[in-house]
Each structure stands twice: as structure tokens, then as C-alpha cells.
Amino acid sequence: METNEKEVYQKKMEAQLNELNAKINELKATGEKAVEKIRAELNEKIEALRPKQETAQKKLKELKKASGEAWEDLKAGMEKAWEELKGAWDLIMLKYKQDYQKMVEAKLAEFGIHINELRAKSEKIGMELKDELNKRIDDLLKKKEVAEKYLEELKSVGTEVWKDIKPKIDAAVEALEKAYQQARSRF
């Protein structure tokens, strides 16, 4: 194999490993903010990924030092190590996405119950307060619809893209929580 082709391949594998390492570090940081159960599972899976990362890094170092026929043999080992690492990463991301989705669905269901409780209160209070409460309920429903829209978008995207939607969902749920707390404290 030509030296230039080797260098291109090695740089490609190094870039892929660096990118995945950055994603793993980002996921670990994100996991710090996750719900306790999800965080524990996520950290456990990330730690289980470390040996695969180390193996891939080791294979890359060996590959960089090799030449000729040995390089071809090591390339196959590098490919295998990369596929194992990437496959394990993809499974972690899928599980994290699914857990996050379930968590958001549960929160939205809980807000649905809270909104119904506020509706029941609105039937028992004076007209002036009832109008104000109904406006707040309408606002809550709109905020809940926004969060549900993002949740549906989340369900339709793959594991590589979902993290771009996550901040939107987090912001929508946070806005809903804040509006609910304000309505609850007033009524």
C-alpha cells in the first residue's frame, strides 16, 4: 500500500476516534444533568465503553508504526476495533434517546394531569379569577403542545441528530414547568 494512502487512512481513523471521544465526553457531561436512574445507567455504559476506546487507540498507534504487509494486517484489526467501538456507541445513544423520550413523555403526562386539576379549580372559583385561570390554562396547553411537537420530532430522528432537538425539548418543558408553577401559586 502506498505511503500517502496509509497516511490518509490513519488520519481518517484518528479523526473518527477523536470525534467519538469528544461525543463520549459530551455525553458524560450531559449525563451529569440527567435524571438519577438514567445518569447511573449512562455512566455505567460509558465506563464499559472505555476498554473499546483504549483498544482502538492502541490499534491506531500500532498502525502508525507499521509498514508493508504488517500494516495491511493491522488495518483489518483497526477496522474491527472501530466497528466494535462505533457499534457500542450507537447502542448507548439509542438507549439514552429512548430513556430521555420516556422521561419527557412521563413529564408531559404529569402536566396533562396538572392542567386538568387547574381546569377543575376554574369551575369552582369566581368569574374574574376564572377568566385569568382559563388564560393560564390556555397558555399551559400551548406550551405543552410545543413540547409535544418537539417530542414527536425526537421520535422521528436517528441517534446522531436527536441531541440537536434535546435542548429545544428541555427549554419547552422548562417553560411549561415555570408557567405551571406560576399558575399553581396563584390559584
Question: What can you tell me about this protein's structure?
Answer:
The chain has one domain (3-186). 90% of the residues lie in helices and 0% in strands. The chain is built from five helices and no strands. The longest helix is centred in the middle third of the chain and has 55 residues, at 68-122. It is rod-shaped and about 85 Å long.
Offer a few descriptive terms.
187 residues; mainly alpha; 5 helices
Helix run count: 5
What distance lies between the first and last C-alpha atoms, to the nearest angstrom? Answer: 75 Å
In what range is the share of β-strand residues? under 5%
| DSSP, total strands | 0
Report the radius of gyration as a whole number of Å.
Answer: 24 Å
SS-derived structural category: mainly alpha
Mean pLDDT value = 88
Kindly report the oligomeric state of this protein. single chain
For the record, the count of structural domains works out to 1
The residue ranges in which pLDDT falls below 50 over 5 or more consecutive positions are none
Order of helices and strands: HHHHH
> Roughly what percent helix?
over 70%
